[in-house]
Amino acid sequence: MSQDLEQSFVKQLKENQNIIHKICRLYTSGQDAHNDLFQEITIQLWKAFPKFRGDSKFTTWAYRVALNTAITLYRKSTRSISTTEFDNSKHFIKQEDYNYEEEEQIKLMYKAVYQLNDIEKALVFMYLEDKDYEEISETLGISEVNARVKMNRIKGKLKKILNP
Amino acid sequence: MEELDLLKKSWQKSEQSFEQVSENQIYTMIHKNSSSVVKWIMIIGIIEFVLVTALGIFIPDDNYDRTLEKNHVGTLVTVITIISYFVSIAFIYLFYKNFRTISTTDSVRKLMRNILKTRKTVQFYVWYNLGMFVIMFIIIMFSFCYYDENFSKMFDKVQLKENASLIWAGIIGLFFIMFSVMFGLFWLFYKLVYGFLLRKLNKNYQELKKIDL
User: Fold this and answer.
1) Has residue B87 been placed in a domain?
2) Does A70 contact chain B (CB < 8 Å)?
3) Hey, CA dihedral for A85, A122, A117, B202, is it positive or negative?
4) ipTM for this prediction
5) Do A128 and B108 touch (CB under 8 A)?
6) How many domains does chain B have?
7) Most exposed of A10, A35, A123, A160 (fewest Cβ within 10 Å)?
8) Per-residue pLDDT tens over the stretch B132-175
């Protein structure tokens, strides 16, 4: 029984691991920190898995546990993110549609997002994942209206960071 | 915001760029130990609980009991001790219940609130014990001053001295310093241990609360 549970968990996690990778990208810098947070999220997901009944999608549930871990449970400080360390953005775009100007802009954008706090990053993450405000508000535990207002403020903040 | 949409486009294309973790690696990971905040709060909470309880069990000895009896507070102290055992059991139950409710699938804010609540129970337990200690200390001090022969003799001697009031002030001052040092140590312990563990959590919780004001 527990063997089955483990197998089903590992399979689903492997298929959906990019969710965790993407959260690690926003909350850590450097491969070591990335792996460390990835492992902690995996452990928390596994611990919570028996309570996952399948009435929501695996991904929706995983978003929640993963963000919880990155924001709340993860002990190591993520404050020491240095923007110089972050240079893997060049992997993001495939060679054929390489556009120097766009690439530079995206890099700057990542740098700006890094300067946000943990909660703001969570909102940006959900936004980038194309989640609606209902899911954002449910995941974070704030009202939908306030999530919307906060997102607009974050956009303003990012603009200010980009054009000081 | 144009730039953010650009980022979104690139973000959604970035899926292939991550080094993929294999099933075997996931198996290994889920058998490793978590380093989550909750785990540490739980460990520290248990240590606190055991230490404070041990302090109450090991300090009294027969001699102490006999002295209490002689000074007419034996029954009172026994009653208080029994009550405090019941209170401790109630606290153990509360700890257990609190840790059970911490579930990572709650919303971020609810999870934070649960952790902070759990943390408060532990803190409350320690303050309760400190309070009990102070009450016991005061009861025993008074009973000694009133009934103990050695104390009476000493008081009489002090009374005869010229600078009696100065000596009294000294004694009271000494007690005061003892208490301050003890409380200071507890306070420092909290600042260091929990401050370190909960700084990030608290900051993020305040941030969420601010959004919802």
Assistant:
1) yes
2) no
3) negative
4) 0.78
5) no
6) 1
7) A160
8) 877 877 887 778 777 777 777 877 777 777 777 888 888 888 88
